[in-house]
Amino acid sequence: MDHEVKRAIDHMLETNPVRKVFWHMDEKVEGLTYGIRQGDDAVVVGDTVVNMEGPYPLKIGRKTGLIHTVSDIIIMGAKPLYALDAMQVSNMAEAEEVCEDIKKQSDGLGVPIVGGNTQMEDLLLPCVSFVVVGKIINKPIPDSGMQTGDKVFMIGEVVEGETGERVARAKVKFDTVIDLVESGTEIHAAKDCSRGGWFGNMCEMLIKSKKGINITSIPYAKITRYMGTHLVSVPETEAKKVIEIATRHRCPAVEMGSVKDELTVSIGGETYVEKEKMEELIKNFPFKKPKI
Prior knowledge:
With 292 residues, the protein is an alpha+beta fold. It has helices at residues 2-13, 16-21, 58-75, 92-109, 163-182, 197-209, 239-248, 275-284, and strands at 32-34, 43-45, 48-57, 78-88, 113-119, 127-136, 151-155, 189-192, 212-215, 230-234, 253-260, 265-267, 270-273. The strands form two sheets. The protein has a seven-stranded mixed beta sheet with strand order 8-10-7-11-9-12-13, sandwiched between helices. Helix 3 runs parallel beside helix 4 and helix 3 (58-75) packs parallel to helix 5. It folds into two domains: 13-136, CATH 3.30.1330.10; 151-284, PurM-like C-terminal domain (Phosphoribosyl-aminoimidazole Synthetase, Chain A, domain 2).
């Protein structure tokens, strides 16, 4: 477990040098509230939310790339509107096959592909990237708003299998989160479980929120794997509502633990990330609270 914890934390820190290079770009965009400095799941300008993912190896992107990109729009408290893709292919026959698979994702999620780019450069490996644009429902949900006493839930099934199964699982999860938002559920923080697995993503939420956690259940033993589930942090008074809405959608929802002031990460009563390490991570993590 200690090795997996270190791996998750290291993975979380990988892109920080890149973010530092672009740190002052946020100042150049009027109306931007979530950008480089927030490092959240998507960028927010006014009530518009934009996310880009990839390049994915073609085999992965054609099965799940659009799903992954939409996921970050949803977890910011927004509805996805439309998408674009950019692909590198070996030939046009391959492009047509890939587009058919992407269309399955698009139709299943209700997020139309309205443009993009297709190219056939000799020296590039086949790959695909996606951009999704959405609109905030009520207000943006940050990954940095955890509060003491919050209950943290993991929502949704692991997004795996063939394209149809992935779309079905993702749609259940997306509908559940949108229902939570539209019903006025108080959500202090939320994040998509992607890079670094659920443990790495939870740690990023804690670092940005300057909080610790007592983890009381582990829904998936391999803490560093990509899963495509959602983490939501809600007041204890909203926990029942989360379960009720998830049940209505037949969506798995596991209560994972409670947020605390003490800057440690404990699992089953044993501390896996000490206070000194959390303080170091908070100090060195490039982050600024959103302008809201």
